[in-house]
Amino acid sequence: MEGETNNGSGVAERICYITRVESFSACHRLHSKSLSDEENKKIFGKCNNPHGHGHNYKVEVTVRGKIDRQTGMVMNLTDLKQYIEQAIMKPLDHKNLDKDVPYFANVVSTTENVAVYIWDSLVHLLPPNMLYEIKVHETDKNIVVYRGE
Ligand SMILES: Nc1nc2c(c(=O)[nH]1)N=C([C@H](O)[C@H](O)COP(=O)(O)OP(=O)(O)OP(=O)(O)O)CN2
Ligand SMILES: [Zn+2]
């Protein structure tokens, strides 16, 4: 059957995807240091406002793996919650992304780059090859997916 692998003992193993959702609030300004003020204004428009603006971001973290026969879990969602706390909530929640998060000092705080930041932070905490996808909702209408490519 599709999605099954064999663990060598003839017993089929099932691959499953599990997702945990968290929300954080942050402000930012879209501004590139490698562009002139005029170019920034032209490209980013209202999002280049010098005083910034805020979002209630929603992040979906998806992990892929085998369902462990003994525990019935791909991984314990309580553990995933703690990794998310460490990699997303502590550094980003109620922060000015551009000023409080060193990563964004020279990286434009687009949702694409927020997704990459979250991937790079989480991938080191999770067991190897388990992180599958980061989906960031900047607004209800603007959604970015990053799969580590
Ligand atoms: N490729 C990207 N484009 C834009 C990003 C981004 O991260 N990646 N971000 C923004 C702004 O940060 C902005 O805050 C988006 O706001 P806005 O366009 O107002 O959001 P909505 O589309 O949800 O609002 P409506 O006005 O209701 O359409 C811009 N571009
Ligand atoms: Zn924005």
UniProtKB/TrEMBL annotation:
Q: Which reaction does it catalyse?
A: 7,8-dihydroneopterin 3'-triphosphate = 6-pyruvoyl-5,6,7,8-tetrahydropterin + triphosphate + H(+)
Give a GO cellular-component term.
mitochondrion
Copy out the cofactor comment: Binds 1 zinc ion per subunit.
- InterPro entries according to UniProt: 6-PTP_synth/QueD (IPR007115), 6-PTP_synth/QueD_sf (IPR038418), PTPS_Cys_AS (IPR022470), PTPS_His_AS (IPR022469)
A Pfam match is: PTPS
| EC identifiers of the protein | 4.2.3.12
Where on this chain does Zn(2+) bind?
Answer: 28, 53, 55
Described function: Involved in the biosynthesis of tetrahydrobiopterin, an essential cofactor of aromatic amino acid hydroxylases. Catalyzes the transformation of 7,8-dihydroneopterin triphosphate into 6-pyruvoyl tetrahydropterin.
Protein name as it appears in the record: 6-pyruvoyl tetrahydrobiopterin synthase
Query: What organism does this protein naturally occur in?
Result: Chanos chanos
Q: Which gene encodes it?
A: pts
